[in-house]
Specification:
This protein is an alpha+beta fold. It is built from 15 helices and 17 strands. α3 packs antiparallel against α4. It binds one RNA strand through α3, α4, β9, β12 and β15.
Length: about 450
RNA sequence: GGAGGGCUCGCAUAGCGGCCGAGUGCACCGGUCUUGAAAACCGGCAGGUGAAAGCCUCGUGGGUUCAAAUCCCACGCCCUCCGCCA
């Protein structure tokens, strides 16, 4: 909002600014008038209030008949104060609503005019001459497809138009851009954010080495993806739903990763197909009130690198063990004590037929807390999402499995608490040091 | 989703409906003393708005009352305990 004092003192500047923007100039006088009315009402109210304060004090001090008389006076005055206060509130609201209409005051150096009236400040670089190079440039959509970098078709399938997956070098390019940008604005108090980038980079680079295709998926998906992965059953109350558009915010990239191949028949010879998705995750946490409200153990939004496998049903059990092993490798690299549990039946998600959780030791809670989870969904999701594979035996439903490689906030909790020193500094696990460029987090 | 406790001037606390915009301790600032420091002692010490008088602010918003930090209602946040998640 603009500064009303400035407006009072420089109405012409504001008028000129409004005019330059092509916006309502008359509003300036409207605001001035309502501001005057407001200020008069405030003064009136404050004077009455001052009287009331004085009178009130004398009521407290008085007694007997004198008090009765004063009370009658006070009562009358209280009515006036109330009326004046109501008037003040009303005029204040009016003045505010008028003032909110005015746009920010233009920098006098900003060019005046419409979209066409921009001023070119400089040209940098020379547009490349493709014709002399002898070929016509392809657009980014075509290149993205050729490089396996951008997938707008599957984006549309899962999340509608204007949605996309970044896959392979596309995802790597995003990480590189982020890292380059971040490395240029490095400062020590940002170690929290840096730790996230380091964890993600470490996770993605190890997953890539293990043959996972890195993916940055959409986090906004259509109902089919949510339904197909089994999140609209019991888990529905934990899901954010955008009613106006009938989109869902995913609670895990498992959803867009599974739906990536929705309604497709995959080549059996290329299985298992493994993806490592990095995305924000959104959870309503309904029904968890009062639990873990402290800190970042349980939050509405967090980032996570999730592993996802498509494989033949007969290989699913083995694949499940592999996912678990990668999770253990990660925890080992973070040098954090943990335990692995075989989750009991009543605690399985609706899509899973078996689930292993890794729980990291959290010293201040004197407990192991869940940091990763890997589920074998066998062909359950595959059927719901209509994903099949074809080999010499014919076309069959595919098995899917998922596992957390790293859920950022909980891993940050585990690292900070387990690797802290007496003075509050924190040692960085060796595996992250190359990604962070430091061996210890210092006090700010 | 449910039960209980809390939210007051940087921190910690006190606060009977009027004598409370608010006491005390610590911290902080200035001074006395001291070669210097500590200690002790003296003084100061919340913010907004307004030219000023004044008005407003005790988590936020309503209400009761002549008068609310104090009573009532709603909400927010924090803490403790039970059924779900990375």
């Amino acid at each position: 909002m603009i500064d009303l004092k400035f407006l009072r003192e420089n109405p012409d500047v504001v008028r000129a600014s409004q005019k330059g923007r092509g916006e309502d100039v008359a509003i300036v006088d409207k605001v001035l008038a309502s501001d005057d009315a407001k200020r008069a009402a405030i003064t009136e109210f404050e004077q009455l209030r001052a009287q009331q304060n004085v009178l009130s004090k004398s009521v407290g001090a008085a007694s007997g008949e004198e008090k009765v008389a004063l009370l009658a006076n006070s009562k009358e005055l209280a009515e006036k104060v109330k009326a004046a206060d109501a008037k003040r509130a009303e005029l204040e609201a009016t003045a505010l609503s008028h003032a909110m209409v005015i746009s920010n005051i233009l920098d006098p150096e900003a060019p005046i005019g419409g979209e066409e009236d921009f001023v070119v400040i400089e040209h940098v670089g020379t547009p490349r001459d493709f014709s002399s190079a002898g070929f016509a440039p392809k657009d980014h959509v075509e290149l993205g497809k050729l490089l396996g970098a951008i997938d707008t078709e599957r984006g549309a399938k899962v999340s509608g138009s204007r949605s996309y997956y970044l896959t392979g070098v596309g995802a790597l390019l995003e990480f590189a851009l982020v890292n380059y940008a971040i490395s240029r604005s490095y400062y020590l108090t940002g170690v929290g954010a840096l730790l996230e980038f380091a964890l993600v980079n470490y996770a993605i680079s190890s997953a890539t080495k293990a043959g996972f295709i890195p993916v940055i998926p959409p986090v906004l998906v259509k109902p089919a993806a949510m339904e197909g992965t089994g999140f609209l059953g019991q888990a529905a109350e934990n899901v954010y739903h955008l009613e106006k558009d009938d989109y869902y915010l995913v609670g895990t990239s498992e959803v867009p990763l599974a739906a990536f191949h929705m309604d497709e028949v995959l080549d059996g010879a290329k299985l298992p197909l493994r993806y490592a998705g990095y995305s924000s995750c959104f959870r309503r946490e309904a029904g968890s009130y009062g639990k873990d409200t402290r800190g970042i153990i349980r939050v509405h939004q967090f980032d996570k690198v999730e592993m996802f496998s498509f494989c033949k049903p007969e290989e699913a059990k083995q694949e499940h063990q592999r996912l678990l092993q990668w999770e253990k490798d990660f925890l080992n690299a973070m040098e954090i004590p943990y335990r692995v549990i075989d989750v009991a039946s009543g605690d399985l998600g609706s899509s899973a037929n078996r689930k292993f959780d890794i729980e990291a030791w959290i010293p201040t809670q004197d407990a192991y807390r869940e940091v990763t989870s890997t589920s074998n969904c066998t062909e359950f999701q595959g059927r719901r999402l209509n994903i099949r594979y074809k080999d010499s035996d014919g076309t069959k439903a595919i098995a899917t499995l998922n596992g957390t490689l790293v859920a950022i906030p909980r891993m940050i909790v585990a690292i900070l608490e387990n690797h802290q020193n007496a003075d509050g500094t924190v040692n960085v696990p060796a595996a992250l040091q190359p990604f962070l460029g430091m061996t210890r987090f210092e006090l700010v």
